[in-house]
Amino acid sequence: MQHTFFYIFVCMYEQLLNLDPIRLNFSANGMRVINFVLALVMFGVALGIKPAEFKNVFKKPKSAILGLTCQLILLPAMTFLLIVLLKDHITPMVAMGMILVAACPGGNISNFMSSLSKANVELSVTLTAITTSTATFMTPFNFAFYGGLYTRYLSRSAGTALQTLHIDLWQTFETVFILLGIPLILGMLFSHFSRK
User: Fold this and answer.
1) For residues 168 and 119, what is the distance between their CA atoms, to the nearest angstrom?
2) Distance CA 68, CA 155 (A)
3) How far apart are CA 190 and CA 196, in angstroms?
4) Where in the chain are the domains?
5) Of 3, 178, 182, 188, which alpha carbon lies 20 to 30 A from 171's?
6) Global model pTM greater than 0.90
7) pLDDT tens digits along 5-38
8) How many Å apart are CA 40 and CA 34, to the nearest integer?
9) Which segments of 20-134 does DSSP mark as H helices, in order?
């Protein structure tokens, strides 16, 4: 039994080493399709949202504050701790990828998952809007901070993996407005005027 787990671990480690040279390039048309699908998902989620429920998120902001703290501060910190634990078993590029993913805001799929699980969708949508809006400075900050710690203390060979991130403010507004705002408003209006 122990040999099986060891074999699985060795295979996973070899696969992680194979990830480093892989590059993903999305074409403009591919991104349009992805954005359309995400907007459609958000429209579907918005069909079940009641506008009055958003008032509760702002009247009782404790959940929103806790969610933002977890997303913007604890998630990158816990990811860094996980990287520290796995430092001998992951490559520098995988570690930097983990830091980058943890530094990014949540998206429309989290709203969809909240809807499927009958969670507080209004809170999820609020968190998505706020974390995406703050991504222009929080994502580069978290990536630079934890990436800097990684390259300084855990892997000096990863210095080339630490790149400066710049997120365009206009593109962020476009993302929030087009992929979240418009489908949200259209979905709630459609639900309100066409209850069946």
Assistant:
1) 32
2) 30
3) 10
4) 38-193
5) 188
6) no
7) 556 655 666 666 666 666 667 677 887 888 888 8
8) 10
9) 28-46, 51-59, 62-69, 75-85, 92-103, 108-116, 121-133
